[in-house]
Known about the structure:
Blueprint: H1 5-18, E1 46-51, E2 56-60, E3 66-69, E4 78-82, E5 91-96, E6 101-104, E7 113-116, E8 122-126, E9 135-140, E10 143-145, E11 165-166, E12 171-177, E13 186-191, E14 194-198, E15 205-208, E16 213-217, E17 226-231, E18 236-239, E19 249-252, E20 259-263, H2 291-302, H3 316-329, H4 341-346, E21 362-366, E22 371-376, E23 379-385, E24 393-396, E25 401-404, E26 410-413, E27 416-417, E28 421-423, E29 430-436, E30 442-446, E31 459-462, H5 463-469, E32 478-482
Parallel strand pairs: 21-32, 30-31
Antiparallel strand pairs: 1-2, 1-20, 2-3, 4-5, 5-6, 6-7, 8-9, 9-10, 10-11, 12-13, 13-14, 14-15, 16-17, 17-18, 18-19, 21-22, 22-23, 24-25, 26-32, 27-29, 28-29, 29-30
Amino acid sequence: MRPTGSEERRLRAIELGLVLSLALLVAPLVPAAPGAAASPALEGQALGLFDPYAGLWYLRDAAGHTTRLGPFGRPGDVPLVGDWDGDGVDTLGVYRPEEGRLILRASGLPIAFVYPMPGGGLPVVADTDGDGRDTVSLARGGRLYVLDGLGRGPEESTGPDPLPLPLPPGTEALVGGDFDGDGVDEVAAVHQGRVEVIAPHGGFGLGYVGTALPVAGDWNGDGVAGVGVYDPWRAAFRLVEREGTDAPRAVPYGSLGMLPVAGAFGALPGKDTPPPHRAGLPAMAMGEVGPEVALLQQELSRRHLYRGAIDGEFGPAAAYAVLTFHKVLGVERTWEWEEEDSRRMAAFILPPLPERPEEPDRVEVDVGRQVLYLIEDHEVAAVVPVSTAGGYLYYSVRSGGRVRARTPHGDFTLTRHSRGWSCDSLTGWCIYNPWNFTPMYALHGYGEVPAYPASHGCVRLPIWESDLLEAHLLIGMPFHVWDEYRPRTR
Ligand SMILES: [Ca+2]
Ligand SMILES: [Ca+2]
Ligand SMILES: [Ca+2]
């Protein structure tokens, strides 16, 4: 790995002046000389955790010793680890989705290389062309764009542009690695807890990780990558060394809120204190403030239950998110985060929803659980607390008699909408941002949204949720109301 003269000057300039300024430097990392023997003695796979709040990285080597790196990265960053320059040693990187940036480090020096990259995507590190250098591919809009160059679009790659690969619906995470041992990395998608290698002509399954955060690595040194997970609620890594043969090896490490990485980092000093270790979150209620509330908000947001700010303040939106979590689980509908909720969250998956391949964007109202699912591009984008009809008898001014409060069930579309408050001149009732799904009944914001069915027939949701949904609903959007969905057995 000899830099050319101009690259050497450039590197020195960075070291001298721009080191910590994260200057936007759009240039390839120094490539390995052709034919140079890559990968010196590998020191084995290390596991790592990125603590986004402190910007610190904790690498745990095979002997169990910790090496701390950083500060590098911040909340919102997706931690990445790869061998960007092909010297056989993995180094750190982050993808910053809101800025559309890839920021990579090539050595222990605090030099960062910044590449533009489309924002809002899901990145994955893999040596997809088998040249010994890792690159970052990106999934957006349900498709994986395999990129063999760093920070380059397909238009700059040599040879024909690779077609984007469709990802399974509901893909939540991606991992890269040589899962079949042929020397070229594949990308695997995690969807509904299953890990599946994505290939143009059919992939293969790698197992089930549930809701834990996946990492990939060659844990047993046989040249074939396996999938491991970090379970943030139990604060432990679990590694399956060979599918179906061994019980997973649990490695307790770190705490909730840290994000896992894995890589071959070479010889690590291993002289630092491990990260604070804590499983789960303590009980919390409205009014509480602190970093643990922020972690709860972040996890509820990751499960599409919370859409408020990650500000560490347990306000009404967080309380409603906890209520929604309890509703979906089918446990007692309380507004407080309880001691046993950490254990429940570790195993939490959404109930099966009706499959409607023709309707990528839609609303599903689950009357039994009293929640609404906003589906966008076939994926659950939001789980929102609602209150539907109470089933009681009431006097209807409009019909001039006693009627039963009932929410119509079935398949509808959104047919009419008005913004803000609209009041019925006959009854004096006011509703907010109504979206009608029948001439009589609407999805609408309301001041009072209790944990139980309470309305005359409309689907109530909290005012702020109604405001957030405004940008996602459309006239003509399918709107389904059902009580309990049981998937067909195949
Ligand atoms: Ca390297
Ligand atoms: Ca490569
Ligand atoms: Ca392979």
